[in-house]
């Protein structure tokens, strides 16, 4: 374990309970950013916030449309008169959390942030680790997260009533992200998960513990240790973009993990039996989408489009090589440089929806 100087990493306090009970602790005059759909599904949410006499409440539509400069400007304008001692509370999925984190970082050069993830995907991943970002359009394609900040939350509220209203698809998306961390970071837990699927609350706690253990060692990605959390993200982001974000982030990461396993095998980094074991577990456990979905998406994109998206990826090296997270064993991962000839050789199989 790398020893950090005091204050180098801010641990967010995880608080479990009903939203109404936790909201009673929110400082008066806070700035709330709320996913509009969540507010409709949970009609007591807005009244609970109003009882705390907020500075303002802004409702946004969740999804990638929330991660635009236009949405960010809306938040900045709404929070312009709040004091630097104020609190911004982000209530929604990962996209609401992302744009709210950027806003919290920029308003008054930084205000207090409380994350309230309302999706399983946000609970296990994006609400922890301090990252916030917005998207940009490059050559007509939306590129995910090229502009962002680090701004750690002081608290995270984990409210089971929000997860009870999620669809099976949303549960799968969050579970895929949790299994990503287990497969790449913890062999013992991976074995336990393959024997018996964890309860939802247990899975959230496990995933948050694993992610925090990585973030605490490299809180601002200065040492490269946090890159291991990007397993499945390189080609996952490409598939999200070519689908025009009809493919969810969680499902994209699932398919991206299959691509990463293929790249690892092709380079001799990921042993054949490990690739089979992890791919089978992703099907049997969280239920990763089939490879035919990758093929369907790639029919909508030219190789030129994919090259442009990969070159815009913030994980690309100076010489254009991809820096991908590849498994060396179950629970172990390394960042390796991947040249274009490696993934291009896999393209025909991916386009047919078969394992190379």
TrEMBL record:
Alphabetical list of CDD domains matching this protein: DHQS (cd08195)
Keyword tags: Amino-acid biosynthesis, Aromatic amino acid biosynthesis, Cobalt, Lyase, Metal-binding, NAD
InterPro entries: Dehydroquinate_synthase (IPR050071), DHQ_synth_fam (IPR030963), DHQS/DOIS_N (IPR030960), DHQS_C (IPR056179)
Domain 3-dehydroquinate synthase C-terminal residue range list: 176-315
Cofactor(s) needed: NAD(+); Co(2+)
Record Pfam families: DHQ_synthase, DHQS_C
3-dehydroquinate synthase N-terminal domain boundaries: 58-172
PANTHER family: 3-DEHYDROQUINATE SYNTHASE, 3-DEHYDROQUINATE SYNTHASE, CHLOROPLASTIC
Protein name: 3-dehydroquinate synthase
Organism: Archangium gephyra
């Amino acid at each position: 374990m790398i020893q950090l100087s005091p204050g180098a990493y801010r641990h967010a306090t995880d608080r479990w309970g009903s939203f109404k009970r936790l909201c009673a602790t929110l400082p008066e005059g806070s700035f709330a950013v709320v996913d509009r759909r969540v507010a409709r599904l949970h009609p007591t949410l807005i009244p609970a916030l109003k009882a705390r006499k907020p500075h303002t409440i802004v409702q946004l539509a969740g999804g990638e449309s929330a991660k635009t400069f236009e949405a960010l400007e809306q938040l900045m304008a709404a929070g312009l008169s709040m004091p630097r001692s104020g609190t911004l509370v982000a209530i929604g999925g990962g996209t609401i959390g992302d744009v709210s984190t950027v806003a919290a970082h920029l308003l008054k050069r930084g205000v207090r942030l409380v994350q309230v993830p309302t999706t399983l995907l946000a609970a296990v991943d994006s609400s922890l680790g301090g990252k916030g970002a917005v998207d940009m359009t490059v050559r007509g394609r939306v590129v995910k997260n090229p502009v962002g900040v680090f701004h750690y939350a002081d608290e995270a509220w984990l409210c089971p009533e929000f997860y009870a209203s999620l669809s099976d698809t949303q549960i799968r998306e969050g579970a895929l992200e949790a299994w990503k961390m287990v497969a790449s970071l913890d062999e013992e837990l991976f074995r336990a998960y393959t024997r018996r699927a964890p309860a939802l609350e247990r899975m959230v706690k496990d995933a948050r513990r694993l992610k925090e253990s990585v973030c605490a060692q490299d809180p601002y990605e200065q040492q490269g240790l946090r890159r291991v959390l990007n397993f499945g993200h390189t080609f996952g982001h490409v598939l999200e973009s070519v689908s025009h974000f009809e493919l969810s982030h969680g499902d994209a990461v699932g398919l991206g993990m299959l691509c990463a396993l293929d790249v690892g095998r092709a380079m001799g980094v990921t042993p054949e039996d490990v690739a089979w074991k992890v791919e089978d577990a992703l099907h049997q456990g969280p239920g990763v989408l089939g490879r035919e979905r990758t093929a369907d998406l790639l029919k909508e994109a030219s190789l030129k489009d994919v090259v442009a998206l990969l070159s815009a990826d913030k994980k690309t090296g100076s010489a254009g090589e991809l820096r991908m997270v590849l498994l060396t064993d179950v629970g172990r991962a390394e960042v390796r440089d991947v040249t274009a000839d490696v993934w291009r050789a896999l393209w025909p199989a991916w386009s047919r929806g078969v394992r190379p």
